[in-house]
Amino acid sequence: MSTHAYIKLVPQSKQKTITLEEVKQFLHYYQDITNKTGKQLDWGYKEAAFPYQIIEASERKEQWLYLKGDGSRYRTIIIGVGQEQTTNEETGETSEQSFIQITLPHGATHGDKGKANEFCKFLAKKLEGELHLFNGRVMYYYKR
């Protein structure tokens, strides 16, 4: 059974919407900064920090990225974007809320879950969003 984590873009977030291309750019930025850390440490940290290949879904214009691991410790993480209708409890108004969904499919390893949590926290911090973790807990990265 697959499990999901969500990064919701709330009104206090840095941006109100997100595209798959922007998520891909954030992942490339993550790879870049971990590569620089590895150079400073004189160690191949980039491969340890991001042991995945980014593969875009090619069928029916799906809104998903597949992170394909090396097969042993890391297998697959799926990242998607979407929008949902939310209702403001105080005013009763409905609005669109963008989110990023991180999915661990059946067969994902503990390494995948650890890396997915890292990526979730990184993205939520960069976007100043609301992170709903795999275990159901919520972390707030926006100013309240």
List keywords for this structure.
7 strands, TATA-Binding Protein, alpha+beta, 144 residues, 3 helices, 7-stranded antiparallel β-sheet
Our Rg estimate from Cα atoms comes to: 16 Å
CATH topology (level 3) name: TATA-Binding Protein
How do the helices and strands follow one another from N- to C-terminus?
EHHEEEEHEE
| Widest sheet: strand ordering | 2-3-4-5-1-6-7
* Count of the domains: 1
Tally of individual helices: 3
**Strand content range:** 25-35%
Total number of strands = 7
User: Could you describe the largest sheet, including whether it forms a barrel?
Assistant: 7 strands, antiparallel
| Helix content bin | 25-40%
Classification by helices and strands: alpha+beta
Distance between the termini: 35 Å
- Top-tier CATH class: Alpha Beta
Query: Which spans of ≥5 residues are poorly predicted at pLDDT below 50?
Result: none
Organism: Thermaerobacillus caldiproteolyticus
Protein name: Two-component SAPR family response regulator
InterPro entries: DUF1885 (IPR015062), Rbstp2229-like_sf (IPR036294)
Provide structural commentary:
- This is Two-component SAPR family response regulator.
- InterPro entries: DUF1885, Rbstp2229-like_sf.
- Pfam families: DUF1885.
- By secondary structure, the protein is an alpha+beta fold.
- It has a single domain, classed as Rbstp2229 like protein (TATA-Binding Protein).
- It is built from three helices and seven strands.
- The protein has helices spanning 20-41, 45-49, 110-127; strands at residues 3-8, 53-56, 64-68, 76-87, 94-104, 130-132, 138-140.
- Strands 2-3-4-5-1-6-7 form a seven-stranded antiparallel β-sheet, covered by helices on one side.
- A hairpin with a 7-residue loop joins strand 3 and strand 4.
- The longest helix has 22 residues, at 20-41.
- The chain is globular.
